[in-house]
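A reminder from the course coordinator: this example appears on the midterm review sheet, so study it carefully.

Given structure:
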């Protein structure tokens, strides 16, 4: 297996994108990215998990061109900014209310007056539901968001290695990423503003846990998977590299 740079310095396209109908089809026994197929001594394809290993050795997904961490971070920031722009009209009243929490004569500090249920619901929509819909639709159709497209990245399956996402995986990955991660955050937020102040420490802990879940891709081996990638059985690859 070798990776080579294009002689003219431009982007290389895989045979699948160049119009070869046979490349990557199940009848030819390989994924769209050419992941090697390994068989046991009975001629069967061994099953491996999303952690990159199975009985016969490392996952074939480890041979794919894994995305650089700094470009993954750039794509995530870009996607978050795009979602924030669309949700700006919803974020604005929350920001204005937050600025008045400690103003003289305000009861919001003691009673959480600005954190009414409609405001909490709006905040959950902007921080969780909108990013979920934004990512799930694009992953289901293209396998990449606008941010990942800009940075030349693509999300593919671990098993079979390099295959495009099916509908369930395209929905499940962002559900973990944007809904499951946020549930703990909003649980402790509601407790903090509606019940007792010390629940704010729970908000901090959940936020740190979410950050670690993203950063997990830095030290994860061999597939550089974030926590949501491990649960969804996906990896992020460098879409600018032709892999053969």
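Designed residues:
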């Amino acid at each position: 297996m070798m990776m080579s740079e294009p002689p003219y310095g431009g982007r290389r396209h895989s045979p699948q994108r160049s119009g070869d109908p046979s490349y990557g089809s199940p009848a030819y026994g390989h994924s769209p990215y050419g992941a090697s197929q390994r068989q046991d001594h009975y001629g069967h394809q061994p099953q491996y998990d999303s952690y990159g290993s199975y009985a016969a050795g490392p996952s074939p997904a480890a041979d794919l061109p894994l995305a650089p961490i700094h470009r993954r971070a750039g794509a995530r920031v870009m996607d978050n900014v795009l979602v924030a722009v669309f949700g700006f009209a919803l974020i604005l009243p929350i920001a204005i209310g937050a600025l008045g929490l400690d103003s003289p004569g305000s009861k919001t500090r003691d009673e959480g007056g600005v954190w009414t249920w409609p405001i909490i619901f709006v905040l959950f929509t902007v921080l969780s539901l909108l990013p979920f819909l934004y990512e799930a639709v694009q992953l289901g159709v293209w396998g990449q968001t606008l941010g990942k497209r800009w940075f030349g990245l693509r999300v593919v399956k671990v098993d079979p290695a390099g295959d495009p996402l099916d509908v369930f995986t395209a929905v499940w990955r962002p559900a973990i990423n944007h809904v499951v991660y946020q549930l703990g955050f909003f649980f402790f937020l509601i407790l903090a503003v509606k019940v007792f102040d010390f629940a704010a420490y729970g908000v901090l802990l959940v936020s740190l846990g979410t950050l670690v879940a993203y950063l997990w891709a830095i030290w994860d081996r061999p597939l550089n998977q974030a926590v949501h990638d491990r649960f969804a059985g996906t990896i992020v690859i460098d879409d600018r590299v032709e892999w053969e």
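The chain is about 50% helix and 5% strand. The beta strands are 53-54, 57-58, 153-157, 234-238.
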